[in-house]
Specification:
Shape of chain A: elongated
CATH architecture of chain A: Roll
CATH superfamily of chain A: Electron Transport, Fmn-binding Protein, Chain A
Number of strands of chain A: 8
Radius of gyration of chain A: 19 Å
Distance between the termini of chain A: 10 Å
Order of helices and strands of chain A: EHEEEEEEE
Low-confidence stretches of chain A: none
Number of helices of chain A: 1
Organism (chains A, B): Actinomycetospora chlora
InterPro entries (chains A, B): Pyridox_Oxase-rel, Split_barrel_FMN-bd
Protein name (chains A, B): Pyridoxamine 5'-phosphate oxidase family protein
Pfam families (chains A, B): Pyridox_ox_2
Helix content of chain A: under 10%
Oligomer: homodimer
Chain lengths: 145, 145
């Protein structure tokens, strides 16, 4: 018998995905700008089912208001090759006046000192996957038992 | 005078963006699947102007073959609020037979043991930004000098 270590990718339920989302400080927002698809990292906060992102008044992500966007967070252990990733999908809006959550504005730009715009993603769908390691034992000829 | 520390976001040139891309082990691929936009982390390798991604034979990213996709890498220091991000945009293809670069297949799925598909992004555009901290001195009344 030989022991073979492999990755196992498990889908995560919505509750667990949401719980993992809450542990992250930075997420990557995928949207479309004038040049095509792009991804930018942002700090964020959560309010109910919304993700709140603070951006500079001149940030080019403003062009994505109204788009369906994806916001991804992950935590990956490169040494042990384990980790998880969660993706929330929804429409990007300007934050309504009732938004209380305050995301750190990051990046924060000096030309716009003290002023920021809050954007929210109304999350319609949240999915996640966890990668764990499993050890499979097999006969030396390589076929499965 | 008061000292105010702020973030400064500098655009990076293509050469520097490419050099930073070479330092990363994991990137986030933004593509569109049957549910809309999504982002998944992948290990990758570089060959000439292409990004090579190894995926499992059943990976749902296969549905993105032919799409214009964005592949983002970053390194963010949450304590000092500095970092950089780089985005490469191009068309996702099956790797041609001439592709030599071998990306770690990550995630690697046990149901497809030993078999992987290599995909390449023919990078058409690469951009980056660096966030650094600057200290601005201002009179106490808050107006700029």
């Amino acid at each position: 018998m030989t022991a073979i270590e492999e990755g196992m990718l498990d889908p995560l339920g919505e509750a667990e995905s949401r719980a993992l989302l809450m542990t992250a400080e930075i997420g990557r927002l995928a949207f479309t700008d004038g040049h095509g698809p792009t991804v930018q990292p942002f700090a964020f906060a959560l309010q109910d089912t919304s993700i709140v992102v603070g951006v500079g008044l001149l940030a080019d992500v403003r062009s994505a208001i109204g788009q369906t966007v994806a916001f991804e967070v992950d935590e990956i252990d490169l040494v042990h090759r384990t980790g998880w990733s969660v993706v929330a999908v929804g429409t990007l809006h300007r934050a309504p006046a009732t938004t209380l959550a305050r995301a750190d504005r990051w990046p924060d730009l000096p030309s716009e000192t003290g002023r920021a715009l809050r954007l929210v993603i109304d999350v319609r769908r949240i999915t996640g996957r966890r990668l764990r390691r499993v050890v499979t034992r097999r006969p030396r000829d390589g076929s499965r038992r």
